[in-house]
Every structure is written in C-alpha cells, then in structure tokens.
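Repro:
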Amino acid sequence: MKRLLGPLTAALLLSACSQTPTTVPPRTVDLGARLSLPAVQTFAGTWSVEEASLPAWLTVSPLGGTGDVRLTVTADRARGTRAAADQATLSGQITVVWQHGAESGRTTWTVTADQYTLTGRVVDAAKVQGADVGTRAATTPAPAPEARGVIVKYRSAAAQSVALGRDVPAVRLGEAAQERTRGALARLNVPAAERRDLGGRAVRLETGDVEAALRTLRADPNVEYAVPNAVLRAQGLAAPVVPTDSYAGLQWAYRLLGYGSVWRDMEGGAYTRPVTVAVVDSGVRYDHPDLEGQLYGPGDGALDVLGFRAAGTDVSGYDNGDGDGPDLDPTDPDTPGRTGGSHGTHVSGIIAARWGEIRQACPECSTSGVVGAAYRAPVRVLPVRAIDAQGDAEIADVALAVRYAAGLPVTLEGKAFTNPHPAQVVNLSLGGDVDAETAQPLCDAVADAARAGALVVAAAGNGSGTRPFYPAACEGAVAVGSVTLSGASAPVRASYSSVYPQVALAAPGGVNPQDATFFGGGTLNGQPFPDLIFSTEWDYAKDQPTYLAESGTSQAAPQVSALAALLLSKGVTTGREDTLARLEATATDLGAPGRDDQFGFGMINAAAALGAPAVSDTLGVRVQDARGNAFQPALDPLGRFSAFLPDGTFRVVGGRDRDDNGVYGEANEPRAEGSATLGPGRTSAALGDLTPQP
C-alpha cells in the first residue's frame, strides 16, 4: 500500500493544476505607457463587463463572452487627465460579472496607466527668478529706456546762459570757454528754440540723436553731466471695471473676454460712433426694464416679417403667435399657454442690457439685473422678428429679415419696408441642419447684406457633429462656435458646438447643462452657479421680466456681434472687412495652431481687439493639445512646471495676463511658445525656458 501512495498523490495534484477556474479572480492590469493592452484570464463560464461602471477614460472590448475572459483595455488618457495635470498615474476599475453553473459573482479589475511628462520653466524677462538664472540675467542687457533729447547741467550759471543763447560778459566766462560751449551746441544743430531752462544750471535739449549728443556734451569742460531725458511711466495699473448689478457676478463670459479692461477704456470717452446691431430672432420684450432705452422700437425701424394665416385657411393652420401679419412691432408675443422664454430677449441682453439701477417691474424683480457688453458705447439693438412663438423660422422669412436689417428694401404682403437704421452688424442666433442647395436663398440674402456693408454673424449650431449649419456656413457669414470654461487658463470647445470648415471664430456660449461645470465661481440663491450664460428673459407663465441661464452657439454669436459693434463705435475699424480681419487677427488661438474647425481663428479677445489698457500683470502658463483640451500645471517659485499629460501634441504658452481674464500670452500680451508630442514612443519632454516677449 505504501508503494501505491506516491503515484496516486501525483495524479491528484496533476488533476488539480489543470482544472479551469470556476470564478473570475481580482487582478491588476498595468498599461504602463501603452495605449492598449490585452488581458486574459482563464475561465469556464460566461462573463460580461459592466459598461456603465467604466471610467470615462477606459474602453474595453469585447463586453462579454463565454470561456476565457479576453479583454483589450484601451486608455483615452485625455478623458481622465485633470486640468491641473497633476496625476502621474491614472487608475480605474472594471467590473466583471461572471457565472459558472449555479455560481455567480462580481469581480473588480484595477487598471492603471502612466501619464506622460512635460517639463519646462516660464522665465520672467523683467525679474531674476532665482540664483540659478544669475548668469542669464547678467549677460542679457536690459533694453535702454526711451529718451526724448538730453538734459545737460553746466558747471556755472554763465555756461548755462551761453547754452541758452544769452549774451555773457567775457569776465564771467572766458571767451575760449564760451566758444567751446557754443561750438558743441552748434555741432549738435540744436536751435535756441529747442533749448529749455530747467533751473539749477540745467538745460533740456531736443535732439533725435541722443547718443551723439551725450558724447559731444560730455567732452565740454563746462558740463558737469549730460544724461538722456528718459521717459518715465506710471507704474500702477488701471483698475478693471467691475459692474455692481445684481447678477453681474454670474456673467463670467465678459471677464473671459477681457471686458474689465474694455469698460475701463470706454470710460475714457473714445466710443462715440453710433452702431446698430440687428438681432434677427424671436422678437423682443420691450417691457423688460433691463432693455429700456437700448432698443429701436416700433415705428423706429423695428420689424416683424412674419405672415399670419388664421386656423382653417390652410392645412397647417399656422399662427405666428401675435395674431397678425408683418408690421412694425416685433414684440415676442404672450400667446395663451406659452411657457418657454423669449430667445430674442436673451440674445439682446448679452449685447446691450442696461447698467445700474432699473425700474422694478414686480415686487420680487431685481432693481439692477445684468449688464450688457456695450456699457457706455452708443450701440443699440434693432429687433427683427423672424422666429415664431413656437421657436420655428422659415428660410424665406429669415432671408427677408436679413436683407431688411442690412438696409435693403423688402416687400411684405404687398407693402414696401426700408430700414431707417441699416445695421452694421446682423446677429443670427438661429440655423438649421439643411443641405447647401436648400440653404441657397439664405446664402443669397447673406451675400446681399455683405455687399451692403453689413457683417453677418451666425451661430455655428448645436449639433456637436461635423455637418454644417446654415446660414452660418454661407459664404459671407461669420460662423461662431461655442467655448466654455475648463478649469485651466484656456477655455475648451463646448461639447454641443458643431465642428466644420466654415467655423470662423469662437466665443463663450456656456457648458452643456447635462455636463454642468462650476468654474465661473458664481452663486445664485446660495447655490453654485453653473457655467451658463445669464441674460435677460421673459417669464410667460407669470407674464413678467426675469433672467435665465442658457447655453448654446446662440449665446456665443451675440458676443461676437457686440465686439464687432464696439470696434466700429471706437473707430478701430470702419467697415465689414476690416472689422472681421481685426476679430480674427486678435483672437486667442485655441486647439491646433492656426485656424481649425473647432475654434476657427480662435476665441475673440475684446481687450486685444480694442487696444484696451492693462488692468493686471501676472505671469503664468497654459497648455493645450491639438484636440482642444486645456491643462493648467502649477508654477513653482522659480517658474518651473511638471505636467502629467495624455498622449498628443501640445502647445505650451508662457506669458503674462494683462486683461485680467486668466488667459496667459494672448494677442496683446508678452508670450513665448513651445511644443512637444508625447505618447508611448516619447514618454517625456523638456521644453527648457520660455521667456515671454512683447
């Protein structure tokens, strides 16, 4: 019996080792620097992956099967990287649900992925950052200050008198000494009229060649010293204008565009030219107190182009909402049972809502409300109603409205109408996913308006995909995409904003409410306020004015229209072409370098476009990838940063923020730029020093 024991034991052990597991055990899948990795676990039953439990940055395929668990795990690191770029490793979990016979269970697999590393340093050219930059600072000469002529101090009052062209007796200053001083001034060719007595034996001399003047004067024995008449400037910054209206703190878009600086500039009085912005939309509520005095009214160019067909006159029974046809009153009507808001009122408030105290329209209504971009500039909104009370607009009506807004005559139901205030800017916060052939009448109207000198600004669409929206995609229109806050210096494309080649510019339109973020920092009724666009609205249920947070390219377009109007009002530009060129040239480039389908030429920059004064002066860095993601690594006291990033091609801008919008190195600010591509083939990169220059 003892001789049989050994072989029997061995057979039992062999059988146990070859048995297929009847459960799925926990495990760790370490991607390291890889983008994807197969993971295999022997198993004899059926299994599935809970897709809903996957973190956003992980995808798994297949999601189920029978037998061995064979998964391919793929990391989209960009979806898991925080704006601060401060995680060296991403970690997430996969839940595997399994069943073997009567047994079942849930098992967690942990997935880890190393981030890629980008390092560098932002070096302030104006300041020594630390002991290790001493050599650089010492060997880089500071730029010479601007000088307007020279100041020379003479050793005696008599010599000063000679320099000023006065007669001096020889007994006070020898003839030879007088000749030396006169000769020096003669060689400098500084006429007597350009010599100014500064007192204390000093003279200011107007001369263009400062260096030559200093050499000549310092060689005169009668001169005590000669120095440049250097230009000194105020060292303090202008303070940004911060409106005090009740809800102004929720209007983060204006700060992002640098309006604190613009409004300070506006108080200098340079914005004097009247500008009309036509808002072709659902009409407007003239009885909203925050819009009083900001709109052209009935009988003053405002127009409703919508026709009216009473119920029973055709198969649609169409009623545009106000009970009549085209007329001079584009009020957004209060139809029975209406509960939605007034789209045109929301858009108009972004451009031109009043500042300061307003009429209180109801006991619970605000007495100051919101603010509009126009502030003190003479910019007025011309409402043109082309969207009915159901929120629909016909191509024919919009085409008529665009032509009318631009000052072209139109005929409505046999009656001719001509706009007495042709709009320099036409805002179209509307559009549709129609094909180019169907949209041709719209595009013809946009072309006519452009030839008439109007800049037509249109919402690029909220389709999130790549299909063009019209009329934004029409030649001659300015298609505006939407950006929102990211938690980093640079904003990002709003997820709903359509992406296609005709997108020309981007502007704040707010976050998709389904993915609400709260980077703006505002609070409303004690609760954090999401990054939406807050503006004037109408409560049709209560029939009273209100304010509402909305998001969309409809909210982005009027940001561009408002800035275009301010360029014209200040006289920075004078017409359609140079206004568009200025908007594009001063935009903050986002995403891939240059124009791209997400952002066009970039996010508009009001402070840069209008040449507004500096209201801040901070040093920082912004990191963006070609997909449009934004990251904000911290700088240490020496300006160094280490960013843990996903795979991709990155632009790194070190720069100063001078318009207090938190975005470093824009068109009007000192900047230095570097780039690097990271991924499995290059897991780290060092950019070295970035020294912002004007």
